[in-house]
Amino acid sequence: MLLVENLSKGYDERLVVKDLNLSIKKGESFGLLGPNGAGKSTVISIISGLFSPNEGSVTVGGIDMLKNTKKAQQLIGVVPQEIALYPTMSAKENLMFWGRMYGLRGTQLQNRLNETLEIIGLTDRAKDKINEFSGGMKRRVNIGASILHNPQLLIMDEPTVGIDPQSRNHILETVKLLNDDGMTIIYTSHYMEEVQLLCERIGIMDHGQLIACGTIKELVDVVGNKTSAVLALKESIIEREKLESFLENRFPKSLVQVKEQEIIAFDREPQKILSDLIQATTEYGAKIATVEMLEPNLESVFLHLTGRNLRD
């Protein structure tokens, strides 16, 4: 469904996406993870035809996005982070508008409108104005606007940010339903549990590069059976390099990572070095707030590969 080859994009001589390669099968649900600034939004903008890359190619459903942008875009639906609706119009009026923008008319538009309202669970609120809706309901209409034309590829960029649990659950169920019906999904989120629930394969981006890609099991195998010990500090580390150098004199470099406000040790039995690590951290002058042991999972893989939590 999607083939991205040797993709690079830069601004003012700064590369934000570097030689990225990615393929997604038709009907697959693919999660794209990365800390803030990793390049996810730029990749999504290029895939959807909003930006042109400096180098590389994007093919959607066999159509070259750069050479036949409009034709390729007809296969795509995009759910943006921000609400892209007219607040003084009703849900039905918004969907009618976007349906016409997709080229739907007459009976076809009315049928798709009714189907979409049922999918997003807002048939009984179709005539209510958007500015009367909760944040979660607005996001459901946002999704409705992106699927009216029944796209083959649906790109969802943080679709559950800042909403109530009930709306969040409804959105997750909607995504599963669409995927079960054969729609290819690209899903980005800062909620790891959502990606684990919805996605068959996951790609992890950092510093503009795709640094890992595979099923959850394949990604967890990257860490092996290593557990992570996380020391959360009371204050941010001002001179991080100094602390790293201090710890490297006592522990193998591959064992310990230093973040702005955390120290992480990866090992099959990190508890064996935990007391020494706490002692060394205290000797350096850093104050420890909490100590947590994390078994191998997607969160620990992400931490291991990027040195950061997903929400950082």
UniProtKB/TrEMBL annotation:
Gene3D superfamilies xrefs: P-loop containing nucleotide triphosphate hydrolases
GO MF annotation list: ATP binding
Record keyword Chloroplast present: no
InterPro entries to which the protein is assigned, alphabetical: AAA+_ATPase, ABC_transporter-like_ATP-bd, ABC_transporter-like_CS, P-loop_NTPase
A matching Pfam family: ABC_tran
All copies of domain ABC transporter, residue ranges: 2-232
Top-level division of the source organism's lineage: Bacteria
Annotated keywords: ATP-binding, Nucleotide-binding
SUPFAM superfamilies in alphabetical order: P-loop containing nucleoside triphosphate hydrolases
Keyword Cell membrane included in the entry's annotation: no
The protein's name in its UniProt record: ABC transporter ATP-binding protein
Species name: Jeotgalibacillus marinus
